[in-house]
Amino acid sequence: MSTTDETIAKNNLFFRQMLFLAVLILIGAVIIGKLSFLIGSLLGALTLYVVFRPWQFAMVNKYHWKPWLASLLFVSIATIVLAGLIFGVFRVVASELINLNFSNILAGMDNIVADINKHLPFNLIPDNYLAEYSSYLGKAAGSIINTTYSFVINIFFMIIILYFMLAKAQAMERTIGRYSPFKGTSKDMVVKEVSSIIYSNAIGIPIIMLGQGLSAALIYWLFGIQHVAFWAFLTAVAGLIPVVGSVIVSVPLGISFIINGAIWQGILLMACGILIIANVDNLLRIILNRKMTDTHPLIVIFGVLMGIPLFGFWGIIFGPLLISIFLLLIKIYYMEFRLISPQELAAEESEADARNRRRPHLPSRLIRENTKARRKTERNE
User: Fold this and answer.
1) Contact 248, 238 (CB under 8 A)
2) Is the entire prediction scored with pTM above 0.85?
3) CA–CA separation, 99 vs 93, rounded Å?
């Protein structure tokens, strides 16, 4: 009888647990659905939190600042920097867009389209393609302004979230660590992977955009292109797109030169776009990857292609992060359930340590600081 009662009690406990989880999932889905517009702000705040966290802990633990005061300082710095960037982008886009005439870029292409269709038994390119394409360019350029306004709103909420994350950093991390499914080595591996990718992209993306934008602006100015700031800005943004990158701006500009009769200028501009501007991007990526993280290029490409539709602009960071975490979870699964031998795991870890010693990077120091801060907190508790 006691065995039957014990079985019934276990079944009741299992049923209550499943019911509880169902309620949690339902409420969580409702909350996420209603607050989905804040996902971009939350991801942006997480990115800046990883960047400012070592300084926040240093100000609080080493220099004995109040947590809210240190948080206010770093939030103010982030606000000033982001406000300057948004103002600069808006001034470039808004001021140049008014005077920009896309018909000059597409001038003469209608004759080329007619010649192509003339020598083919069918119309390879529709006759109204250029007219529609010109209107699409105008709408796309105009949407940049609308995107800027929505980005400002996301920045506002991001700053608020970042303040409370930094002000309550130690309590937040203790809570996350307490309820995290990862413990010990697995937890350190996840923290290292997340912080490494977020930090490297948070620092790397602005540097890549700045380097590519400046190089594009110099080349466009030398070739006498009008509205240099606008086209350099578009080139810098296009440089974040995997595979094609900045050539989707520089090559059409070169084609527009050829169409308007400046054949050699157009050829040289396309050559500079492919050989110089695109390689500035590649060179900076190689330098940043060596100093900060060793992410495989395919992870970056597929991560960005997947992340931008999911997370918007922040998908550039969190798309590759999601794929990296997925691959890391596979490794943790094999490690936790002993599907990989200790010898193989030790050999892999020693190889990774050797790479880290050859290429020290800031996230490794961040992990060491995290470990020291966690041990100090545990001793105080």
Assistant:
1) yes
2) no
3) 10
